[in-house]
Amino acid sequence: MKKRDETGSALLMALVLALLVTAIGAAVALGSRTETVIAGNFHQSRELLYAAEGAMALTIRELDAIADWNMVLTGATASSFTDGAAIGSRTLPGGTTIVLCCGAGTLSGDVQARAHAGMSWGADTPQWQIFAWGPAQNWLPPGRIHSAAYVVAWVADDSGDADGNPAADSNNRIDVHAQALGVGGGRRVIQATLERPPAAGLPPPPGLRIVSWRDLRW
Question: What is the C-alpha separation between 132 and 146, in angstroms, rounded?
Answer without folding.
Answer: 20
